[in-house]
Specification:
The complex is a heterodimer. By secondary structure, chain A is α/β, with parallel strands linked by helices. Chain A has two domains: 15-248, 3-Layer(aba) Sandwich (Rossmann fold), CATH 3.40.50.11310; 260-310, no CATH class. Helices cover 24% and strands 16% of the residues of chain A. Chain A contains seven helices and twelve strands. The longest helix of chain A is centred in the first third of the chain and has 16 residues, at 38-53. The radius of gyration of chain A is 21 Å and the shape is globular. The two termini of chain A are 35 Å apart. Helix content of chain B is 38%, strand content 25%. Chain B has a six-stranded mixed sheet, with helices on both faces. A four-stranded antiparallel sheet of chain B has the order 2-1-4-5, with helices on one face. In chain B, strand 4 and strand 5 (72-74) form a beta hairpin. Chain B is α/β, with parallel strands linked by helices. Classes of the chains: A alpha/beta, B alpha/beta. At the A-B interface, helix 5 of A face helix 2, helix 4 and helix 5 of B.
C-alpha cells in the first residue's frame, strides 16, 4: 500500500487537495481515500490483524454506518476500504457476476472515493470483494478475497444467546453444529445444507463461510490468497490466513460432498464449475450457465462454446 | 453401592442480596441413592439444586464430586471446560419445564443425539440407533423420532428430556419437579419409568419436589427444607411416617389421603 496516488485515476480528493482543479459546477465532495477516515481504517486493520492471528475467530469491531443499507455488503465494504491501497486493482462480484447492481455499485463507490483501478478479470485483481461466491479461477498469494457476511455466527439458529455461543466457541463445544447436520439427514436423507456450510478452520474454530454454495467450500482449504470476512450489521470480522486447513464438517457415514451438475455450461461448455439455472420460458425451458461471469466470458473468448452459444436470445456478450 | 459418597456439600449458602436463598446446607449423596429435597415453595429447594449442579455460584461453602478417577474434587477448582464436560457426560439435569431442557425446534432424535455428538460421536447411523434405543426405553414410539417436541404432550416431553439426559449414561442426575404440571395418571407412569431406569442403571439422583408422594415413591433418603435451612433429614419412610419437626409434621399431615 504505497502512499502515492495513481496519477491516471480520478482525483481522490484527499484533505490536502481540497482545491480541486477545474471541477464541475458543484464542488467535489472531499472524501478521504476509500471513504472511511484514517482512524476508522486503523481500527478495522487492527481487527483484521487479530482475525488473521486467530483463524476463524469472530473479532468484534466498531462497524460504521455506510452509505448503503445493511445486507448490501456494509461489512465487506469496510474491510475492503481498510485494505485498499492506491495501487490496488479491485474486482467486485455478486453471486459470481460482475454486472449486477450490488457489484456495479460497490465498484463505482471505490472508483469514486478511492480512485483505484477496477477490473472484472479475476487474474488482474489484487482485491476481490465477493458476495456469495469464490471465483472459479484459482487465487494467488498476491490476492485478497473479501467476503460480505450477513450472519457470522454458525451456531446462531440453534443457540440464540450470544453469551452462550461465545462460551461454546471458547470451549470448542461444537456438538450443536452437528445437531443441525443430523436434522438435515433425518429430514431429507442427506445433508441438505447447500450454502453457508459450516467449516472448521485450522483445527479449532468453527466458522460460517458466508452464504457461498458449499461447492466453493473446498476452494477455501489451503488457499494461497488471504480471505477476510466482514459482517457490518453484526459488527464482526474474521479471517482465513493463506494456506490454512479448512475442513467442512460432516458425519463418517455421510461425508461432505459438493453439488454436481449433469450438464456443462450452456454458454462456454465448462464442467466442474458452479452453474446458475436460467428459466427461458414458461414451458419448462431452462439453461445452465456459469455463475462466474468472468470465467465464462474468458472461456468463450478462448473459443470454448456450450450448447446454446450464439443461439440463445439475449446471450451475454 | 460403596460407602464413599459421590457428591458432598459442605456448608452451602446462597444470598440474593439481603435475602437468603439457602444457608448452611451440608449433605452427601451416595452412588445409586435417590435423595429427595422437599419443602414448600420458596424454601430454597431449587436454589440448593442450582448450587449442587454448579448452575449457581455459592456465597459460602463448597460442593465436592467424586470424579471417574475416584478423587473427591472441589467443583469450584475445575475449569469451565471440565465442568461443562462433566455436566454433559457424567451428570444429567431434568428440568421442571421441558421447554427449558429440550431444544424445541430440533427433532426428538436430535435432542437425544445432541449429547452424543457433543462428546464426539460422528457416525449418523450409530447416533440414530442409540437415539431409537433410548426413545424405546422411555416409551416414545419409534416413528416419532423425527418429530419435534412441540408436537409432544407434556408427559412425552418429560420422558424425552429424561432420555436426552441418560443417553451418555451419567452417574448423577438432578431432577427439579419432574412430574410438575402432569396429570396423575401420567405422573404415575413417569414415576414408574424413572424408578425403573434408576434401579437399572444404578443412578444417583437428587430430586427436588414439593410432592411428598413423589418423594415416597422414588427416594431412599430425604431432606426437608424450610426458610433456606435443612430442618430434618433421614430415611424417607422414617421421615414421612414419624416426622419429628413440627413443620415436617404439618407438611405430612397436609397431604390429602387419596
Amino acid at each position: 500500500m504505497s502512499a502515492a496516488p495513481d496519477p491516471a485515476a480520478p482525483d481522490p480528493a484527499t484533505p490536502e487537495s481540497d482545491a480541486a482543479p477545474a471541477g464541475p459546477l458543484l464542488p467535489e465532495l472531499a472524501y478521504n481515500f476509500a471513504y472511511l477516515d484514517e482512524q476508522t481504517k486503523r481500527m478495522i486493520r487492527r481487527a483484521i490483524l487479530k482475525a488473521i492471528a486467530i483463524p476463524g475467530y469472530q473479532v468484534p469491531f466498531a462497524a460504521r454506518e455506510m452509505p448503503m443499507p445493511y445486507g448490501w455488503g456494509t461489512g465487506g465494504v469496510q474491510v475492503t476500504a481498510a485494505v485498499l491501497g492506491p495501487d490496488d486493482v479491485l474486482k467486485v462480484i455478486d453471486q459470481g457476476a460482475d454486472d449486477t447492481t450490488n457489484a456495479v455499485a460497490i465498484r463505482g463507490f471505490f472508483e469514486k472515493t478511492a480512485g483505484v483501478a477496477t477490473t472484472t478479470r479475476t487474474s488482474e485483481a489484487s482485491v476481490i470483494q465477493t458476495r456469495h461466491r469464490i471465483p472459479e479461477q484459482p487465487l494467488t498469494e498476491r490476492q485478497i478475497l473479501v467476503y460480505q457476511v450477513p450472519i457470522p455466527e454458525p451456531l446462531r439458529f440453534l443457540e440464540p444467546r450470544e453469551t452462550e455461543t461465545r462460551q461454546l466457541h471458547a470451549l470448542a463445544e461444537y456438538g450443536l453444529v452437528h445437531v443441525k447436520l443430523y436434522e438435515d439427514i433425518a429430514r431429507h436423507g442427506h445433508i441438505a445444507t447447500t450454502y453457508a456450510y459450516p467449516v472448521e478452520v485450522a483445527g479449532r474454530y468453527v466458522m460460517d463461510p458466508s452464504p457461498i454454495p458449499k461447492f466453493d467450500n473446498p476452494k477455501m482449504d489451503d488457499c494461497p490468497a488471504l480471505q477476510l470476512f466482514g459482517a457490518g450489521r453484526e459488527k464482526r470480522i474474521y479471517a482465513i490466513p493463506p494456506h490454512t486447513r479448512v475442513r467442512s464438517l460432516d458425519f463418517d457415514d455421510h461425508p461432505f460432498r459438493v453439488q454436481r451438475f449433469a450438464e456443462p455450461c450452456a454458454m462456454c461448455g465448462a464442467r466442474g464449475v458452479y452453474l446458475d439455472e436460467v428459466i427461458l420460458d414458461d414451458r419448462g425451458g431452462r439453461m445452465f450457465v456459469c455463475s462466474d461471469t468472468d470465467h465464462c466470458e474468458t472461456r468463450q473468448a478462448e473459443g470454448h462454446h456450450g450448447g446454446m452459444w450464439g443461439g440463445a436470445p439475449g446471450a451475454a456478450a | 453401592m460403596t460407602d464413599q459418597p459421590l457428591l458432598v456439600a459442605e456448608g452451602l449458602a446462597k444470598n440474593y442480596g439481603a435475602r437468603i436463598g439457602c444457608r448452611d446446607v451440608s449433605l452427601e449423596v451416595y452412588p445409586g441413592e435417590v435423595l429427595a429435597v422437599v419443602g414448600e415453595s420458596g424454601s430454597g429447594k431449587s436454589t440448593l439444586l442450582g448450587l449442587l449442579s454448579t448452575e449457581l455460584a455459592p456465597s459460602a461453602g463448597r460442593v465436592l464430586y467424586r470424579l471417574k478417577d475416584g478423587a473427591l474434587t472441589d467443583l469450584a477448582s475445575l475449569g469451565p471446560a471440565e465442568r461443562r464436560l462433566l455436566m454433559r457426560t457424567d451428570w444429567g439435569l431434568v428440568r421442571q419445564n421441558p421447554a427449558e431442557g429440550l431444544r424445541m425446534a430440533v427433532s426428538a432424535g436430535g435432542n437425544v443425539g445432541e449429547r452424543l455428538m457433543a462428546v464426539g460421536w460422528r457416525h449418523y447411523g450409530d447416533i440414530r440407533a442409540e437415539a431409537l434405543d433410548w426413545l424405546g426405553r422411555v416409551e416414545i414410539a419409534a416413528d416419532r423420532i423425527d418429530d419435534d417436541p412441540r408436537s409432544f404432550s407434556g408427559g412425552m416431553r418429560q420422558r424425552l428430556q429424561i432420555a436426552r439426559n441418560l443417553v451418555t449414561r451419567p452417574r448423577l442426575v438432578f431432577m427439579d419437579e419432574p412430574t410438575g404440571g402432569l396429570d396423575v395418571s401420567v405422573q404415575a407412569r413417569l414415576l414408574d419409568l424413572i424408578r425403573g431406569l434408576v434401579a437399572q442403571m444404578g443412578l444417583a439422583v437428587v430430586i427436588v419436589t414439593h410432592d411428598l408422594a413423589v418423594a415416597r415413591l422414588l427416594s431412599h433418603r430425604m431432606v426437608v427444607m424450610r426458610q433456606g435451612r435443612v430442618i430434618e433429614t433421614g430415611l424417607t419412610d422414617q421421615v414421612l411416617d414419624d416426622p419429628r419437626e413440627p413443620y415436617t409434621q404439618l407438611l405430612v399431615s397436609s397431604v390429602l389421603a387419596a
